[in-house]
Amino acid sequence: MRPLRALLVAIPSLALAQTRSSKRGLVFIPNSATPEDDEVWVQPGSDLTWYYNYGSTPSPAFNSVPQDRFEFVPMLWGAIDDTSFLDSVREQISSGRNITHVLGFNEPDSQYAGGSNIEPSVAADVWVRNVAPLAERGVKLGLPACTGGPGGIPWLQQFLGNCSQLISAGDEKKNCTYDFVTIHWYGNFEGLASHMGSYAAAFPNVTQWITEYNLDNQDLATTQIFYNISSEYMDRMDSVARYSLFGSFRSGDSNVGPNAVMLNNNGQLTDIGLWYLGVAGTGAEPQSGGSGTSRIRKGHVPVVGTVVFALAVCVALM
User: pTM for this one?
Assistant: First the structure.
């Protein structure tokens, strides 16, 4: 097997893949110190069609952007002891916002920072009271987004079992319904593809949303290669309806390494940021504070990566 780096050196004339895709969304992580960064994601020419912010209500930064252009997807982040999430989404729908999808709990199988750390039985009770009723309004429901660890799928299976127990009565067994699974992954492409395959086996014929993913704490070349391979893969997979790269922040603010970001330290789009928005890169270094642009140039045409490159990368990974 030829090393991937050697293969890329052997075909220097092939550009890295920059493509447009309606599947791409934004994991919105605002920074009150740099509010000017918020407008980068919705500027004319951006490829992004939807976003979530780990909360139940839209971000004020995007109040001027209509829902049909930049769809807000509410999330029930953790356990609550009331029906405030359900009430919030219903109110948004009643006020005219077209809420079509909602996301379940954020990493409920994790006790570490960022995870909601909920027992499956508790999560099932909250789901039945806050999420399940939204299906009656035609809203599509996403299962909780577990970590990429080995306990994620078993947690979901236990959750669904507990949920079924709550809504079943007597001898009549009912199952809690859902429309798509949500997946998190941090690691290399082989691991991502394998993890997606595990979900496909556990939840067959169910659409996938990859709502957090990246290759963390690697050198720039490796990180860029991962981005190009993974985005090409998810774009062509019919089972993947949507995906959102975790990295919508400046290099100095990153918790996934300084290179796995879409903005440099001046808030200018890195190559990965530009590629993710659907246009060609400019060579901006993530850890720099100068070169590059946070603007998509008017009339700029995306550079589409060659099929040969994609095939070459796939061969290198086999």
Answer: 0.87
Give the per-residue pLDDT at 307: 36
Phi then psi for 225, rounded to 5 degrees?
Answer: -60, -45
- Is there a contact between 62 and 51 (Cβ–Cβ < 8 Å)? yes
The answer to whether 28 touches 59, Cβ cutoff 8 Å, is: yes
Q: Which three-class secondary structure state does DSSP give residue 57?
A: coil
pLDDT beyond 80 at 249: yes
Give the whole-angstrom CA distance, residue 161 versus residue 38.
Answer: 40
What is the separation of C-alpha 6 from the centre of its chain, rounded to a whole number of angstroms? 31
Distance from C-alpha of 37 to C-alpha of 61, rounded to nearest angstrom:
10
How far apart are the two ends of the chain, measured CA to CA in Å?
8
Token representation of residue 25: 């969304």
Q: Give 194-236 pLDDT, tens digit per residue.
A: 999 999 999 999 999 999 999 999 999 999 999 999 999 999 9
Q: What are the DSSP calls for 76-113, one per residue?
A: --S--SSSHHHHHHHHHHHTT----EEE--BSTT--ST
Average pLDDT, the chain: 88
Neighbours of 238 (CB within 10 A): 6
Confidence of residue 294 (pLDDT cuts 50, 70, 90): low
Q: What is the pLDDT of residues 54-66, one digit of tens each?
A: 999 999 999 999 9
Q: Which two tokens stand for residue 271?
A: 């190559």
Angle at 208 between CA 59 and CA 189, to 5 degrees: 100
Q: What is the largest CA-CA distance in the chain?
A: 67
Q: Which helix (H) or strand (E) holds 167?
A: helix 152-167
b/e for 264-289, b at 16 or more Cβ within 10 A? Answer: bbbbbbbbbbbbbbbbbbeebbbeee
